[in-house]
Design brief:
The chain is mostly helical and 351 residues long. It is 39% helix and 7% strand. Helix 2 crosses helix 8, helix 4 crosses helix 5 and helix 8 crosses helix 9.
Length: 351
């Protein structure tokens, strides 16, 4: 399916509509066979989440369609402070990011993986139905609502969950004991790991043979692409992550073949401040990854209804263990308030 979709050629970026769809004619790019490309339907273009509309009082979201690789993710404004600091500081960062992206889209390496491509953005197990009689036969694929015609690199960091090893954990507590010999992985677990490894290799080989442009995008240095992908979500995810991406890019600017001077040049004071904020952000992300794997949730904390009570109890138990570790920490800057702030999911602090 991915191979056949990748063969299709499009003149613009956006979402597919029937040609007679009741949308503004000026927002249509006509295609053949009764279709057109119109405004993008993905959720990130419609600010429909709780209070998201407040992020777009300065510049409205531009949903396209876009002809040519000249789309710049919109910088946003708000009348409320962001979770990561002052509004003006965040706006200045977004303005720097916009200047950086204007240089990045001139880069030939980025342009080579920026052609419009139609793909399903969420090809995971939960969205793929197979035949009961023959599980090798796909009978349906659901959850197409956010599919769109995007630059190829937009899909480059997506890997279906059936070819990803979910068992790799990272340590959470410094005093976590080593696994004793009698509890080493079973032969069944080892066999599962081998199967996953084979799936990962097969996936990459299949992409290289069937969708070479997508494979090329996956091999491109991510440092070039991450500021383009993530700047539009910085009001929700925090300025710290975006600042880190810009810092890494600026440090490798010349190595990546970018000839113009890097527009992002932080001051020493900004670097010191970022270093402290990045430490907290990184710790929080590591905690979240550990929790996702421990309670079998997604990164937003969603779990199946039947697993809710067990996940809630596990989250609470792990939080209490985390707070014990915080209280015993030798880090002078680590305290109860900071420890609670770093925990990514809701807990009962009075428990």
């Amino acid at each position: 399916m991915v191979k056949e979709m990748a063969k299709l050629q499009f003149p613009a970026y956006g979402s597919l509509y029937f040609a007679d769809a009741p949308i503004d004619p000026s927002s249509k790019v006509d295609l053949r066979n009764g279709f057109c490309i119109g405004p993008h339907c993905a959720t990130q273009y419609w600010c429909l989440g709780p209070k998201e509309s407040r992020f777009y009082t300065r510049r409205k979201p531009n949903r396209g369609p876009y002809v040519g690789f000249s789309r710049i993710p919109d910088t946003a404004s708000t009348t409320e402070a962001s979770a990561t600091g002052a509004i003006q500081e965040h706006l200045l960062l977004l303005e720097s990011c916009e200047k950086v992206i204007k240089e990045l889209i001139k880069c030939q390496a980025v342009q080579n993986v920026a052609a419009p491509m139609l793909l399903h953005p969420d090809l995971h197990k939960r969205n793929i139905f197979v035949s009961i009689q023959d599980p090798s036969k796909i009978t349906a694929v659901i959850d197409w609502q956010s599919s769109g015609v995007e630059p190829i690199f937009s899909f480059a960091n997506e890997t279906p969950d059936m070819v990803v090893d979910p068992s790799v954990d990272m340590p959470l507590f410094q005093d976590e004991p080593e696994t004793p010999p009698e509890t080493t992985q079973s032969s069944q677990a080892n066999e599962s790991g081998k199967e996953i490894s084979i799936c990962e290799q097969t996936f990459e080989v299949a992409l290289k043979g069937w969708v070479p442009k997508l494979h090329d995008a996956r091999t491109l240095d991510e440092t070039l692409l991450r500021p383009i992908r993530y700047c539009q979500s910085s009001w929700m995810d925090g300025a710290t992550a975006l600042r880190q991406e810009l810092l890494e890019l600026s440090q490798h600017w010349s190595e990546l073949g970018l000839s113009a001077p890097c527009p992002y040049q932080p001051s020493p004071e900004e670097l010191m401040k970022h270093s402290r904020e990045w430490e907290d952000f990184d710790s929080s992300q590591r905690l979240k990854l550990f929790l996702v794997r421990s309670i079998n949730s997604n990164t937003d904390g969603w779990v199946p209804p039947e697993a809710w009570e067990a996940a809630k109890d596990a989250n609470q138990s792990l939080f209490e263990e985390w707070m014990k570790t915080v209280s015993q920490s030798d880090d002078a800057d680590m305290n109860e308030v900071r420890g609670r702030r770093l925990w990514p999911f809701d807990v009962d602090v009075n428990n």
